[in-house]
Amino acid sequence: MAPISTHHPRLRTYAALFAIVGWCAVILQFFLSIDLALGNGKTVALGIIVYSGYFTILTNILAAFALTAVALPMHSPLGKHLHRPGVVTAIAACITIVGLTYLLVLSKIWAPQGWLWVADVTLHYVMPTAFVIFWWFAVPRGALNWKDLPSWLVFPLGYLVYVLARGAMIGLYPYPFIDVGVLGINAVLVNSLLVLLAFIAVAALLIVINNYVKPKAVSDKFN
Question: By three-state DSSP, how is residue 53 classified?
Fold first, then answer.
């Protein structure tokens, strides 16, 4: 399978810009999480634990790595892996779910202010939009295959196992809709299934767009 487009100067500039934005956002949120923990009389370690439990953070880190791999570009095994159209598409689907879940569910119960608002908007709105635009120009038309979709479920399913196991051990859940202590395991599994189905729908839509809607050589517009 051909790699994504990495040789267009404007595409690389775009990737560099939003790699910087993405890294700044996740670093900012890291320090804000620690500050929140200390402000609530908790420890730095707890702030790091809370921070590392968010799908938003982990997905934005993946997106920042993928953009960095194009901006530099990276020729290491990791860089080549991040140049694969399927990997970029999986990240695009994940970060789209980040934005949609926040918009439709979490934004109604969370109203950050100041730097928290800056980090929040960047991680949930700016980066998802920027990365999907990057996906549109970087992934060649016809580069995606339906048989690749099951492998894209590894990250979200792995995340679910991680947060449920972690929650069972320490009693902390990153999102209210997967809080087993409040909702019970049955409700959490139903909510998780709904999010997973949404992910599959988004991933399927990206495949359709790539194979049937997207024009050929769209990345040439970055020349």
Answer: coil
**Residues 145, 94: Cα–Cα separation, whole Å:** 17
Question: What is the average pLDDT across 78-84?
Answer: 78
Distances (CA, A) of 172 to 48, 135, 177, 182: 12, 34, 12, 11
Q: Which amino acid is at 1?
A: M
Number of helical H runs and strand E runs in the chain: 11, 0
- Structure tokens, 214: 């997207």
Phi and psi at residue 12, in whole multiples of 5°? Answer: -65, -40
CB atoms within 10 A of CB 114: 8
Residue 16 tokens, joined: 């560099």
Instruction: At 25, list the tokens.
Output: 């956002």
Residue 30 burial by CB count (10 A; 0-12/13-18/19+): exposed, middle or buried? middle
Q: Say which residue the tokens 């020349």 belong to.
A: 223
In terms of Cα–Cα distance, which of 125, 67, 134, 137 is closest to 96?
125
Q: How far is CA 108 from CA 93, 102, 128, 176, in A?
A: 22, 8, 19, 12
Question: Alpha-carbon distance 92 to 210, whole Å?
Answer: 12
Give per-residue pLDDT as tens, 4-51.
Answer: 666 678 899 999 999 999 999 999 999 999 999 999 999 999 999 999
Q: Compute the radius of gyration of the chain from its Cα atoms.
A: 18
DSSP, res 214: S
